Amino acid sequence: MPKRKKESKNEWLDWLKALLIAFGIAFIVRMFFFAPIVVDGPSMLPTLHNGDQLIVNKFTYHLHEPERFDVVVFHASSKKDFIKRVIGLPGEHVEVKDNVLYINGEEVKEPFLKSNEGKSQPFQIHTEDFTLENLPGGYQEIPADHVLVLGDNRGNSTDSRVIGVIPMDQIVGKTSLLYWPLDRMQMMGK
Q1: How many domains does the chain have?
Q2: Residue numbers annotated as active site
Q3: Neighbours of 39 (CB within 10 A)
Q4: What is the pLDDT of residues 63-107, one digit of tens each?
Q5: Residue 67: which domain range?
Q6: What confidence score (pLDDT) does residue 12 get?
Q7: Whether 18 and 87 share a structural domain
Q8: Which among 26, 43, 44 is positioned nearest to 35, based on CA atoms?
Q9: Do 113 and 66 reside in the same domain of the chain?
Q10: Where would I find the Peptidase S26 domain in this sequence (predicted)?
């Protein structure tokens, strides 16, 4: 075999190996560490908008438990994932009365619910009154390994008020980066 053909064949094999390694690494990162997700619907307005594209950190909850106000993605069904905000943690009692959140009887501020007084807004920050006992499951406190989640658009959100508390093993991960649209790009904190 001429030397030039052999070098060409080796070069193709090197490229093929590099591509296979790159695809393997991308697969591992996507499966176990980070995944993209697109917001579908208005339930997280004003924080997240329909069509926003996010990166979900799938690894962080292997190191620690979810914290209050984390924005998480979870399996709502075998075919659908939801994005909501963690409000209640295991062992807590949650209640909303007169649009005020109470955890174990103490008022908790929700700074992400910003009101634009006098302005027309496509979301509702008002939260109808509820207690944990009135939600599916009728719990007195959130069970171990579960969280209570709510959408930020309280008038248009299918959340724990409808589907009950969420088992932690159904949580895919925490949103870590809003990357599209570019003018709204930001690290997702609390």
Answers
A1: 2
A2: 43, 84
A3: 20
A4: 888 999 999 999 988 788 899 999 999 999 999 998 889 999 999
A5: 34-187
A6: 75
A7: no
A8: 26
A9: yes
A10: 12-180
